[in-house]
Amino acid sequence: MSAASRASLRSNRTRRTFPGPRRAALLTAGAAAAALTLSACSSGGTSSGGGDTNFVLGKDGIATADKGERADAPDLSGKTIDGKQLDVADYKGKVVVVNVWGSWCPPCRAEAPGFEKTWKDLKGKGVQFVGINTRDTSTGPALAFEKAYGVTYPSLYDPTGKLMLRFERGTLNPQAIPSTLVFDREGKIAARSLQALSEEKLRKMIAPVLAEK
């Protein structure tokens, strides 16, 4: 084999180690889709259990505040996605679970069945679930979401996120979608999660607040 032929063969082998245009395009598209999946349901914001905060972040990602260290829940009132009027303050005396969600959010879809099952099991024990639907530009997708996943508890319609902004910064405020908060019977914020919850984690989050006297 001539020197020219050997050089040509080495060149061809080198070129074959790189993906072709179509494969490169697929890899790029796949990476973009993965990044979108990871970031689409986050609204930013950071907080922790250190500094001047009055809560502790557990290893399970659930932050809790002791009695006497809890912030008051803000005014959460307005129209629900089915056009009714709702004021979370009317549930004072019950443990209230507030879930911030959007029909466009994959983790929200994943956690919805567990939330509905837990709600059905606990509503007779002094627990009230309330959703806050956000970033849906109309109520149609939100209503379709509830029908698809059999969600029966009410959800306030908050397309611009104004209800989320009513929570005081530095407290157990919602900072992502989904976020879940547990209010104690006095209407104070006792626990928070900034991630999708399995049914097991949701029950674990509610149980200590429900057990309080």
From TrEMBL:
Biased composition, class Low complexity, residue ranges: 1-11
Q: Does the keyword Transcription apply?
A: no
The record's InterPro entries line, in alphabetical order, gives: AhpC/TSA, Thioredoxin-like_sf, Thioredoxin_CS, Thioredoxin_domain, Thioredoxin_ResA/DsbE_sf
Question: Where mainly found?
Answer: other
Record region (Disordered): 1-20
Compartment(s) of residence: Cell envelope
UniProt keyword terms in alphabetical order: Cytochrome c-type biogenesis, Disulfide bond, Redox-active center, Signal-anchor, Transmembrane
Would you tell me the protein name for this molecule? Answer: TlpA disulfide reductase family protein
Organism field: Streptomyces olindensis
